[in-house]
Design brief:
disordered C terminus, elongated, 31% strand, 8 helices
């Protein structure tokens, strides 16, 4: 990968490669597998933590040696072991389950997942005898031109009978690069009268192996195609599927429409009947039914039913927009809660604030929440009207049905029903029918 980041931790659909492998194993009934790691794998170990059992391969000399390193972790009562390469993130759990069932049914010494017409040229070729039985697996680097023309390739998932396995691994010949490979077990078992069985993957994309950034891009494309197809079958409209990016952890309600160039990332949940995009980026956020987000960025935010955002607005972590509220263009909201049917239509910043039901935030209004040392909060109560270009110097409260005039700089609390204007803002009071006065 030519990277400081270990290959298993490179993100695919916003999750590390190894997480996809472990998820497939868990869905197939293997929730606490043994992960073989080299001696210097602190980042991988820290990421996986208590989810797995670790076996250390002190000197990484091939997959066969890696499996031997895990021997002490395999219980004495085990009759079979399932082995999966840690860089094959698209293998579906159904393929793993079928592989195990076929292995036990046939009584094979070794059962492997294969595919034909692979998307990658570098995978090991599966060689068969004249009777069509698996005779050997030859790695790309060791294959002859005739062998490289073979269409069937190894998918990197194996079921192995424990009887005779450990002795066989110790006897495997070294490959041309002085490493010992699991794939050599196929020829070893056949030469000694064992049976090697192959199970075909449903889709060549299932066995994509990630070794380079190009492989990672190929896997991402295949993962996205799989995710998009699933959601379209579940009642979501993707106007241009190829221009829509949806992470594996995202959920979408039926009758939601996603327009092009939208990115739905992380643990985002979107309700039914929403309109997303074009050009929306939504990360780790929750949207209720009937929401609209156009050309805006939402991060760790919540929209309740019927709320709309955009275009060109940014909801930062902690933004919570109430039912039916409207957040228009060029509005930034951070760590704030907007109540029901709040309107913030234009060019506003709402930070560290609570905004009551029915309040109106005028164009250019902002909360000055940072005093250079601490973040301070603003409270805007129900049905308040914050005039254009108002600056609310936190901590401050604008009372129920209170109003601020255009350009007001509010440094003190505004009482319920009052109106303030000016710099600094002061309450207005009508002295008589001819002359209005400002209350000092």
């Amino acid at each position: 990968m030519r990277s400081a980041l270990p290959k298993p931790l490179h993100p695919l659909s916003s999750l590390p490669i190894i997480d996809h492998v472990l998820s497939a194993l868990a869905a197939a009934g293997h929730g606490h597998p043994i992960v073989v790691v080299p001696s210097e794998a602190d980042a991988v170990i820290a990421h996986l933590a208590a989810r797995v059992q670790f076996a250390e391969q002190s000197v990484p000399t091939g997959t066969g040696d890696a499996l031997l390193a895990a021997r002490s972790c395999v219980g004495p009562a085990a009759e079979h072991v399932l082995v999966m390469n840690g860089d094959t993130p698209l293998v579906p759990p159904e393929a793993i389950t079928r592989l195990k069932a076929e292995h036990e049914k046939t009584g094979a010494s070794m059962t492997l997942l294969t595919t034909r017409d692979p998307l990658q040229p570098g995978l090991g070729r599966v060689l068969r005898d004249v009777g069509g039985r698996v005779a050997a697996i030859v790695e790309q680097r060791d294959a002859t031109p005739e062998q490289r023309a073979v269409a069937e390739v190894n998918g990197g998932v194996y079921a192995l009978s424990v009887s005779g396995l450990w002795d066989a691994l110790a006897q495997l010949p070294l490959a041309s690069n002085s490493e010992r490979y699991i794939t050599a077990l196929a020829a070893h078992f056949r030469e000694r009268g064992g049976y090697v069985h192959a199970v075909a993957a449903d889709d060549p994309r299932d066995v994509i192996c990630v070794n380079t950034r190009a492989d990672l891009a190929l896997a991402e494309s295949a993962m996205q195609a799989r995710i998009r197809h699933r959601w379209m079958l579940d009642g979501v409209t993707l106007v241009d599927p190829a221009a829509t990016y949806i992470d594996v952890g995202v959920s979408l309600g039926r009758d939601t429409v996603v327009h092009p160039n939208s990115h739905l990332r992380g643990r985002t949940s979107i309700g039914e009947g929403c309109i997303i995009g074009p050009n929306a980026v939504i990360v780790d956020s929750t949207l209720g039914d009937g929401c609209t987000v156009v050309a805006s960025v939402l991060e760790q935010s919540t929209l309740e039913a019927g709320a709309d955002v955009g275009p060109f607005s940014h909801l930062r972590p902690g933004a919570h927009v109430g039912p039916g509220s409207h957040v228009g263009n060029f509005v930034e909201i951070k760590d704030s809660t907007l109540g029901r049917e709040v309107k913030a239509g234009h060019f506003s910043y709402i930070g560290d604030a609570t905004v009551g039901d029915g309040a109106n935030i005028g164009a250019g209004a902002l909360t000055a929440n940072y005093d250079g040392a601490d973040k301070r909060r603003t409270a805007i109560e129900e049905d308040a009207f914050v005039g254009s270009d108002t600056v609310l110097i936190a901590p401050v409260r604008v009372g129920r049905r209170a109003r601020t005039g255009a350009g007001a700089v509010v440094t003190r609390d505004v009482a319920d029903g009052d109106t303030v204007v000016g710099v600094p803002a002061r309450s207005t009071a009508v002295g008589n029918s001819k002359n209005g006065k400002i209350k000092e």
